[in-house]
C-alpha cells in the first residue's frame, strides 16, 4: 500500500514539474501559467472565455501564452496579424483539434476524408445554382411551416411562444426539410437536437455530469436513428442533398456506421446557428424602433420582381440589394458571434505580426484567435462596441437627393485599415461555406 501511494505521489510530482517549470524564452509571447500547476487557467477559461481573455489582453497585450490544463495556448488578438496564422498550412494545422472534437462530441471518425475533398463537395452544394435551389426550397418550407403552425392555433386564432423558440424551431425545421428532405419527423429531430445541443459545450470540454452523460448519449443515438438512411421514406430520391452527401461518403470509403454518424455532424453544422442568429436579429429590431423603421422602410421601397424572377421563386430580398438589413445583421453578429479559431503548431514557428515584431511559437502548442474581443469588441475599431448601432456598417448618406446608403466595409485602428472588422464566419480557407445559405435563411 505504501509503495503504491509512493508511486502515485511520484508520478503526480513528475507531472507537476513537467507542466509547471516552463519559462518564457527570448522572443516568445508573454507567459501566464496561473496559480495552479498543470491546471493553470483552465477553470477561468472554461467558465467565461471572453471575460478571461479580455483580462489577459489588458495585462499582456494582443499576444500572450496561457496554460490551460497542461496545454499551452498562445492567444493572438491583433486582427491584422490573423492571416499569418489562418493562411499558413505548413506550420499550423486545424484538422487534429477538429478530429478530436468530432470523436468526442459525435463519436465520429473520418480518417479517409481530406479537408480539401470535403470542402470541394460543400462548395458544389452551397454555391451558385445549388445555392439558389436550396434558398428557394428553404423559402418554400418556411412559408409552409408558418401556415401549418397557424392551423394548430387555438380557436381564438392566437398561439403563444417565446421568440427564441419560434426562431430556432422554424429555421431548424425548414433547414432540415431542405437538406434532409424528410417529411415525417422534423419536430422529433428538433426536440432531440435541442437537448443534445444544450450539452454540446460540456461534451467538448469533457465536463458532463453522470446524468448529463446519459442524456447526451441517448440523444445522440436517437438522432442517429432519426437521420438514418433506413428511415428515408419521404425524401425526393437520389437528387436530394442528403443522398448526394451519402454518395460522397461512400466514394471516400466511409463505412455505413460512420456515414450515419456523419449526418448528425452535418445537421449540427448546418442548423445550429441560423435560428439563434435570427432571434438576436429580431430581438434587436424589436428593442430599437429606429432600426426597425429603417429596415421596414427599405423593404417597402423594394420594387416587385418581374414575372421572370417570380417564376424562378426569387424573393424580394434575393432580387434586390438590402444594405440596411445586411448592416443590421452584421451588427447583430458582431455583438453575438463568438467564434474561436484554433490551430495546432506542428513545427517551431517564428510568427511575424503586423506590428513588425517576431514571436517564437513552440511545436505542440496551440494558437487561438478570438475575433469577438478584437476586432468585434475593440473600441479602437468600433466606437462604443457594447452598444447596438443599426447603422454601424452603413456609410453616411451622400449629398445627392434620394441616394441610397451603402454597406460600410472600411474600418481603422490606430490610423491603419483593418482587414477584418468582424469575423462571425471565420476567414481564409476555412471560412464557413454555408455562409450565404445561412444569411439568406435568416433574412427570409
UniProtKB/TrEMBL annotation:
Keyword Acyltransferase: no
InterPro entries, per the entry: Cyt_P450 (IPR001128), Cyt_P450_CYP7A1-type (IPR024204), Cyt_P450_E_grp-IV (IPR002403), Cyt_P450_sf (IPR036396)
A GO-annotated cellular component: endoplasmic reticulum membrane
GO molecular function terms attached to this record: heme binding; hydroperoxy icosatetraenoate dehydratase activity; iron ion binding; monooxygenase activity; oxidoreductase activity, acting on paired donors, with incorporation or reduction of molecular oxygen; prostaglandin-I synthase activity
Annotated binding of heme, by residue: 432
Cofactors that this protein relies on: heme
UniProt cross-references to SUPFAM superfamilies, sorted A to Z: Cytochrome P450 (SSF48264)
Key words of the record: Endoplasmic reticulum, Fatty acid biosynthesis, Fatty acid metabolism, Heme, Iron, Isomerase, Lipid biosynthesis, Lipid metabolism, Lyase, Membrane, Metal-binding, Prostaglandin biosynthesis, Prostaglandin metabolism, Signal, Transmembrane, Transmembrane helix
Extent of the signal sequence: 1-18
GO BP annotations, alphabetical order: prostaglandin biosynthetic process
A UniProt-annotated Pfam family: p450
Membrane topology category: Single-pass membrane protein
Keyword flag Ion transport: no
E.C. no: 4.2.1.152, 5.3.99.4
Residues annotated for substrate binding in this entry: 104, 110, 273, 366
Subcellular location field: Endoplasmic reticulum membrane
UniProt catalytic activity: a hydroperoxyeicosatetraenoate = an oxoeicosatetraenoate + H2O; prostaglandin H2 = prostaglandin I2
Family indicated by similarity: Belongs to the cytochrome P450 family.
Function statement: Catalyzes the biosynthesis and metabolism of eicosanoids. Catalyzes the isomerization of prostaglandin H2 to prostacyclin (= prostaglandin I2), a potent mediator of vasodilation and inhibitor of platelet aggregation. Additionally, displays dehydratase activity, toward hydroperoxyeicosatetraenoates (HPETEs), especially toward (15S)-hydroperoxy-(5Z,8Z,11Z,13E)-eicosatetraenoate (15(S)-HPETE).
Protein name, per record: Prostacyclin synthase
Amino acid at each position: 500500500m505504501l509503495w503504491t501511494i509512493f508511486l502515485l505521489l511520484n508520478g503526480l510530482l513528475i507531472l507537476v514539474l513537467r507542466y509547471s517549470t516552463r519559462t518564457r524564452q527570448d522572443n516568445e509571447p508573454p507567459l501566464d501559467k496561473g496559480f495552479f500547476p498543470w491546471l493553470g487557467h483552465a477553470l477561468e477559461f472554461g467558465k467565461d472565455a471572453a471575460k478571461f481573455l479580455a483580462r489577459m489582453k489588458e495585462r499582456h497585450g494582443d499576444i500572450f501564452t496561457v496554460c490551460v490544463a497542461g496545454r499551452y495556448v498562445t492567444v493572438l488578438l491583433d486582427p491584422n496579424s490573423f492571416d499569418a496564422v489562418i493562411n499558413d498550412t505548413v506550420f499550423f494545422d486545424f484538422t487534429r483539434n477538429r478530429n478530436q472534437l468530432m470523436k468526442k462530441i459525435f463519436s465520429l471518425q473520418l480518417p479517409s476524408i481530406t479537408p480539401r475533398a470535403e470542402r470541394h463537395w460543400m462548395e458544389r452544394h452551397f454555391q451558385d445554382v445549388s445555392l439558389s435551389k436550396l434558398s428557394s426550397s428553404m423559402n418554400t418550407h418556411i412559408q409552409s411551416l408558418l401556415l401549418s403552425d397557424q392551423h394548430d392555433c387555438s380557436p381564438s386564432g392566437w398561439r403563444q411562444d417565446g421568440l427564441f423558440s419560434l426562431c430556432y424551431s422554424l429555421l431548424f425545421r425548414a433547414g432540415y426539410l431542405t437538406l434532409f428532405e424528410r417529411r415525417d419527423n422534423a419536430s422529433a429531430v428538433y426536440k432531440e437536437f435541442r437537448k443534445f445541443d444544450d450539452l454540446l459545450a460540456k461534451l467538448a470540454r469533457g465536463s458532463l455530469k453522470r446524468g448529463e452523460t446519459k442524456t447526451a448519449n441517448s440523444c445522440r443515438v436517437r438522432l442517429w436513428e432519426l437521420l438514418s438512411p433506413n428511415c428515408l421514406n419521404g425524401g425526393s430520391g437520389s437528387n436530394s442533398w442528403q443522398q448526394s452527401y451519402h454518395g460522397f461518403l461512400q466514394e471516400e470509403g466511409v463505412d455505413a456506421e460512420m456515414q450515419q454518424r456523419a449526418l448528425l455532424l452535418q445537421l449540427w453544422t448546418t442548423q445550429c446557428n441560423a435560428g439563434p442568429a435570427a432571434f438576436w436579429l429580431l430581438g434587436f429590431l424589436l428593442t430599437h424602433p429606429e432600426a426597425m423603421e429603417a429596415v421596414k422602410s427599405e423593404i417597402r421601397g423594394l420594387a416587385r420582381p418581374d414575372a421572370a424572377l417570380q417564376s424562378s421563386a426569387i424573393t424580394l430580398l434575393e432580387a434586390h440589394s438590402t444594405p440596411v438589413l445586411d448592416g443590421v445583421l452584421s451588427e447583430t453578429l458582431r455583438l453575438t458571434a463568438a467564434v474561436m479559431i484554433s490551430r495546432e503548431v506542428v513545427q517551431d514557428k517564428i510568427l511575424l505580426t503586423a506590428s513588425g515584431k517576431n514571436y517564437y511559437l513552440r511545436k505542440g502548442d496551440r494558437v487561438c484567435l478570438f475575433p469577438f474581443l478584437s476586432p468585434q469588441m475593440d473600441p479602437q475599431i468600433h466606437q462604443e462596441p457594447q452598444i447596438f448601432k443599426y447603422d454601424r456598417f452603413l456609410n453616411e448618406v451622400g449629398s445627392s437627393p434620394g441616394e441610397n446608403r451603402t454597406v460600410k466595409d472600411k474600418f481603422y485602428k490606430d490610423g491603419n485599415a483593418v482587414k477584418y472588422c468582424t469575423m462571425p464566419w471565420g476567414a481564409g480557407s476555412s471560412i464557413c461555406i454555408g455562409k450565404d445559405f445561412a444569411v439568406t435563411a435568416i433574412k427570409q
